[in-house]
Amino acid sequence: MPRPQKLKETIPSLWRIFRRFYPYIRKQQKLVIMSMTALFFEIGLRLLEPLPLKFVFDEIFAEQTSGTLNNFPYVETLDTRILLMASAIALFLITALRGLAAYWNTVGFALVGNRVLTEVRSVLYCHLQTLSLSFHNSSRGGDLTLRVISDVGLLQEITVTALLPLLANCFIVIGMVGIMFWLNIQLALLTLAMIPLFWFVTIRLSSRIRKVSKQQRRREGAMASTTAESMNAIKIVQALSLEDQFASVFTGQNKKNLKDGVKAKRLAANLERTVDVLIGLGTSLVLWRGAELVLNNALTPGDLLIFLSYLKNAFKPVRDFAKYTGRLAKASAAGDRIIDLLDQTPEVYDLPDAMVAHPFEGIVQFKDVGFEYDSGHPALQNIDFAVQPGQKVAIVGHSGSGKSTLANLMLRLYDPSQGSIIIDGQDIRSYTLQSLRAQISVVLQDSVLFAASVWDNIAYGCPNSTEVEAIAAAKLANAHDFILNLPQGYDTVLGERGVTLSGGQRQRIAIARAAIRQAPILILDEPTTGLDKGNEQEVLDALQKLAQGCTTFLIVHDLELAVRADLVLYMEKGQLLERGTHDQLMKLNGRYATLYGLQAKESHQLQGGTY
Predict the structure, then answer these.
(1) Cα separation of 576 and 559, whole Å?
(2) Which CATH class is domain 4-342?
(3) Ranges of each domain in the chain
(4) Alpha helix positions (H), 27-77
(5) Apex CA 557: angle with CA 554 and CA 561, to 5°?
(6) In whole angstroms, how far apart are CA 522 and each of 81, 525, 529, 544?
(7) What is the pLDDT of residues 278-315, one digit of tens each?
(8) What sign results for the dihedral spanned by CA atoms 60, 64, 66, 72?
(9) Counting Cβ atoms within 10 Å, is residue 436 exposed (0-12), middle (13-18) or buried (19+)?
(10) Which residues contact 326 (CB under 8 A, 6 or more apart)?
(11) Among 164, 183, 405, 422, which is disulfide-ready with 109 (CB 3.0 to 4.6 Å)?
């Protein structure tokens, strides 16, 4: 059995969630006040609802009515039929007004919950966008998606269907307990004596339900991640016949999730039935003692009747808490996962005194730059070089030598562990991220296109661009002609990641997206890898036009592309070993020259049909 200190997790967790989301709740202050007002009206009317029954039973049905209504002496002067009619009308009016008040507070609180958590979802999504690459590289995309969509949705649903009704019932039970003490202190104390039993049973089982629910949400996150990974890589999955392996992993996770779900339902059902038994016990004790008091003329039958009515309604929050404990546990687990994500802080962020970058000339310097993805494993060491405006720089070397890391640091996707990167005489950390990245265009090896129209995919490079500018960018990228041949031209909606296009077509739209940005600094990371000769030439022509007047960094394996560069940087194991023009490095006859010679030999052999 869990230790007592572990049994009180759900309520503190819900309180933590409330405190975290309170600033969003405060924005709905008017609606909250209206809903609370309607709630208190409902509570007052609910407290009045049983009173007409007392008049009927004590004045109309009782054989001896003298002194029975000493709290309402004026009622004794009323005719029986008038009292009966008045009681019936009063009961109807109280019930109708209570229903109206309940409607308004239910709708009001539902609106508050929906508005607050809709805003939380937007904040969470935007926060995810700001988190550093190091966080995203260590996280699973499916689980993050589940937190944004499902966890917020679950918290939103349960807040409306469980938490708010329980909150209302807590106010109701306070008022009813007060009336029960007014009716009869003995019976009220007997009722309160049951509370420790309710509390012990509830917190004992609810903590177990919360633990299972939290584990279930983790499994659902793993299932979402497996689904996202396999769907995003469906081509590889099918090509390598991995369907059965992924299906096996998913099925195993699914079965474990089912087991947790059944366990949570069983615990919730156990809690509900246990609470029902305790409520039955409490009602029986009150009925037994109350009947004795009626027989001894210490209590009227009407008083006992409405006491039992209040008792039933007072126990309702306990029964509801048992009913909704599973949901509240899931809400608690979902809320914790949302807050844990919101508590993540980006490693790369705007400094307090960061300034908006001026239009760059394109002077770029790396000064003693070092970087580590993992502590103790340097990816870059002591990188020093300078580039003048408009120069073309080729960064070459074997895979894993740190070429792409240089580009990532220039974009401030990471910050260097040591040294500094300077653009136009200022450390790039002194600029705001948005103004820095707005002046750097990027074309990657695997350029991602979005499930949107061709217009939109090009315009993402510069959201305020016009159609004329988009067409000009497409023409510069040698993409205009094939775009016009698409089913709806520029209005054609591309498949996710641009899978409906060939590799060369995707790359040329990505080049158009970079061109419309008109940035003074251009980064090209293996832009022709995987393309056939025809598409490669089209892309190279587009890149050559794109690079006119830009400070350009070209990351390549194919050294033929480095021949015309103004500066060649040869990297190996995170170190800059050689620098100079192509001719200078060939005369140096070092590592670059050796690698160039090997590539030239392989190219000659391939052209000669050796392979």
Answers:
(1) 16
(2) mainly alpha
(3) 4-342
(4) 29-48, 51-55
(5) 55
(6) 93, 10, 18, 11
(7) 777 777 877 888 787 877 877 777 777 777 777 777 66
(8) negative
(9) buried
(10) 209, 213, 264, 265, 267, 268
(11) 164
